[in-house]
UniProtKB/TrEMBL annotation:
Gene3D superfamilies reported in the protein's UniProt record: 3.30.450.40, Winged helix-like DNA-binding domain superfamily/Winged helix DNA-binding domain
Key words of the record: DNA-binding, Transcription, Transcription regulation
Transcription is among the record's keywords: yes
Name under which the protein is recorded: IclR family transcriptional regulator
């Protein structure tokens, strides 16, 4: 049975390359045409493949519907949380996960620092759009017209002397973030708090979330925190791989 399932599933990446006739499918699987036909018929019955008028087979619409449904039901927080915990265990600092929803960037997960001095932030709380590292990553991924329109309508409160002062400066910062693929907030929101962040991407390459490590100056300096950037980026890449299906998550136990 497992061999039959394996063979049936092997047909799907073949058809992803383009329509194929029965002979090509049989050759790719290394089976007789009658066996390939039975597998194709089963996939056809479930809407996963479609037989064209030229007798070639292509991927069926049901497969795309299932993929879309699966993507809509993915819980980025559930996928990311074990990675955030592991990162927190490695570095000891506060770890956040944030998403962009309805013109706000919100924290959707947090793992607290193990140090006595902790950050005042909570799940569900909006972040400061013009200075927060996670916000910069999420907004930098917007198409340019949307970025410009957003920048023009935002206020630019001067939380500290390092806060982003105006729309031109914000757009310049977003372009920099977009090019380098990571972001920082080095005292832009609170003088004593620094943050480094990396993007979580979906299968299409778009940024679906952003994760960060934050710490106060009394625990580590900004330069010391920046040395964690490779680790933060590796963690974000691991979450991206699992979320997009490029790497498997934990299997059945």
């Amino acid at each position: 049975m497992s061999q039959t399932v394996d063979r049936a599933l092997s047909i799907l990446p073949l058809l992803a390359e383009g329509p194929a006739d029965l002979g090509r499918v049989a050759d790719r699987l290394g089976v007789h045409k009658s066996t390939a036909l039975r597998l194709l018929r089963t996939l056809h019955d479930h809407g996963l493949v479609y037989r064209q008028s030229d007798q070639r087979y292509r991927l069926g619409a049901r497969l795309f519907a299932l993929a879309q449904e699966a993507m809509e039901n993915l819980d980025i927080r559930e996928i990311a949380h074990p990675h955030l915990v592991r990162l927190n265990e490695q570095c000891g600092h506060t770890v956040h996960l944030a998403v962009h929803e309805e013109n706000e960037v919100l924290y959707i997960d947090k793992v607290d620092s193990r140090y006595p001095v902790r950050m005042y932030s909570r799940i569900g709380k909006p972040v400061a759009l013009t200075v927060a590292a996670v916000a910069k990553l999420l907004l930098a991924d917007l198409p340019e017209p949307e970025r410009r329109a957003l920048a023009e309508r935002l206020d630019y409160p001067l939380y500290t002397s390092r806060s982003t002062p105006n729309a031109p400066a914000f757009l310049k910062e977003l372009e920099k973030v977009r090019e380098q693929g990571w972001a920082t907030d080095l005292g832009g929101h609170e003088e004593s708090i620094n943050c480094v962040a990396a993007p979580v991407r979906g299968a299409d390459g778009r940024v679906v979330a952003a994760m960060s490590v934050s710490a106060p100056n009394v625990v580590v300096t900004a330069d010391e925190l920046l040395t964690l950037l490779p680790l933060v980026r590796r963690t974000a890449d691991a979450i991206s791989g699992e979320y997009s299906g490029r790497t498997p998550g934990p299997g059945p136990r």
